[in-house]
User: Which sequence fits this backbone?
């Protein structure tokens, strides 16, 4: 009798495990399918404009990956100058970050900015996975250009913040500082905020670009910036990211007019506060 009960118990347990595994596999397939559909909608793509004729000593660089080519702009302020590695936001291109590169150069900083897969004149299909890989490859080039830099500073805006938080621990060498501006906390949360999905259905999407989780384990110092006047992404999301980083996180509230002012109209009032904050 005991053997029969043991046999029945084992069979029941195996059936439960099988059902649970099958359900998990089905959920993962659903999540991946939903992500693929989402990736067709969320990325705002446009060709880059021709760079203006100015005095900025910039170098256009092509990053050749196995199935795509990324475009980048490199501005050197000298071999030992501190250098910014920049990850821009959604719907943005290299030329739009020209004003900030000019400003940083005038302050003695080198800078490197690149267009993700499918953005600007970079080729390929934009996906979460591709954008994460883009940053890894772009950083390799940046590191090779800055072997003697006084320090390397990662600066990300909006969408770029999620990519930087995802990849920062894999950069070699590590960034001295990670600075994020106008960030969203997780992809799921911003999709709900922007009404792409309902809160009740967010678990049907992969938990990718989870900034809260990535901030908890970041190895570099994390400096979080957000404007009180940002109408695109709630400032509370950046505050949550700073809290998630624990002792490594610091938060600075900016008074800039909107989401993009920090790079569209760089000025001493804004950037002196940032330089002081991250020094």
Assistant:
């Amino acid at each position: 009798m005991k053997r029969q009960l043991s046999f029945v118990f084992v069979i029941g347990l195996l059936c439960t495990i099988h059902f649970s595994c099958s359900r998990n596999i089905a959920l993962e397939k659903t999540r991946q399918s939903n992500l693929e559909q989402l990736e067709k909608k969320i990325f705002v793509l446009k060709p880059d404009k021709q760079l203006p004729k100015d005095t900025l000593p910039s170098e256009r660089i092509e990053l050749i990956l196995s199935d795509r080519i990324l475009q980048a702009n490199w501005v050197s302020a000298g071999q030992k100058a501190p250098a910014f590695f920049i990850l821009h936001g959604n719907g943005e291109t290299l030329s739009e970050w020209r004003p900030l590169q000019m400003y940083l150069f005038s302050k003695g900083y080198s800078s490197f900015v690149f267009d993700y897969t499918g953005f600007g004149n970079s080729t390929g299909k934009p996906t979460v996975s591709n954008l994460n890989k883009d940053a890894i490859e772009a950083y390799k080039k940046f590191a090779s250009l800055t072997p003697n830099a006084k320090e390397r500073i990662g600066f990300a805006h909006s969408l770029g913040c999620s990519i930087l938080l995802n990849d920062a621990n894999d950069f070699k060498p590590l960034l001295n500082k990670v600075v994020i501006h106008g960030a969203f906390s997780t992809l799921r949360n911003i999709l709900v905020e922007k009404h792409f999905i309902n809160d009740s259905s967010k678990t049907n999407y992969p938990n990718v670009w989870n900034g809260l989780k990535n901030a908890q384990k970041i190895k570099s110092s994390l400096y979080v910036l957000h404007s009180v006047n940002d109408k695109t992404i709630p400032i509370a999301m950046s505050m949550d990211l700073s809290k998630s980083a624990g002792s490594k996180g610091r938060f600075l509230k900016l008074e800039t007019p909107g989401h993009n002012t920090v790079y569209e109209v760089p000025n001493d009032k804004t950037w002196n506060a940032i330089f002081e904050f991250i020094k």
